[in-house]
Design a protein that fits this description.
about 190 residues, mainly alpha, 9 helices, about 0% strand
Length: about 190
């Protein structure tokens, strides 16, 4: 309920309303932070196999790239894969702003089937490995370790409940302020030498 608005006061009121009417909503087996992405994958696989849905052949990846554009600039931007999943399979919950999330392999499968799963995970592995190597080669710089610490949680732990492009987007959003500090310090260091 609380995700149906961006007004913090209204969010608090909606959350309190939900808790008062259904206190069990906070139980781990009810909201399963890491259980729900499997539901999305199951729904999409079943729908493609029973021919009620077709592969998107890259369309959802393009839609995912468009979500990098802020809603202020592009108010009618396409939904994320998780939002699309909710609109198709759980429209009532989507209207309330609720989300079951989608794992990286969900997007891969929805786009190109099993090949898409392999390709998505391969690409994701390249990103995580490259980022780790960057951290290792620059570990003497404290800010690099801080950037790694901020984004590790997103790239590795939270990635379980976001699709590939949203994982990348949130990682960039987390790292960007620290990257600005890093580049400013490098610029200052070069200017003084």
């Amino acid at each position: 309920y609380s995700r149906s608005t961006s007004d913090p006061r209204e969010m608090a009121e909606l959350a309190a309303y939900q808790l008062n009417n259904d206190p069990g909503v906070m139980l781990p087996w009810r909201n399963g932070e890491f259980a729900n992405p499997g539901v999305a994958l199951r729904n999409i696989i079943a729908s493609i196999q029973d021919h009620t849905m077709d592969f998107s052949y890259g369309k959802s990846f393009i839609m995912g790239l468009l979500t990098f554009v802020p809603k202020v600039v592009y108010p009618n931007r396409p939904p994320t894969l998780a939002e699309f999943h909710m609109e198709v399979f759980y429209p009532e919950m989507a209207a309330e702003g609720r989300n079951l999330a989608c794992f990286i392999i969900t997007g891969g499968y929805y786009n190109f089937g099993y090949f898409g799963v392999l390709a998505s995970m391969f690409f994701y592995g390249i990103i995580v490995a490259s980022f780790y190597r960057f951290m290792l080669t620059n570990k003497e710089q404290g800010i690099v370790l801080l950037i790694y610490a901020f984004t590790f949680q997103i790239l590795v732990i939270s990635a379980m409940r976001t699709d590939l492009l949203q994982t990348i987007k949130v990682s960039i959003m987390a790292a960007l302020p620290l990257c600005v500090v890093l580049f400013m310090s490098l610029y200052k260091k070069r200017a003084t030498t």
